[in-house]
Amino acid sequence: MHPTIPLSAPLDELLDAAKSRYDVRFEPVSIAGETLEILQIADLEALIDRLVLTAGQGPITLPYWAKIWPASMLLGHFLAHLGPGDGRTLLELGAGVGICGLFAAKQGFTTLLTDIHPDALLFSQINILQNGLADRASVAHADFAADRLGRRFDVILGSEVLYLEDLYRGLLKFLLAHIALAPGAEVVLAKDYTRKATRFLGMAEKEFHQAERVVGYKETNPESGEPERKLCQIYRLRPRKHA
Question: Which top-rank group of organisms is this from (predicted)?
Answer without folding.
Answer: Bacteria
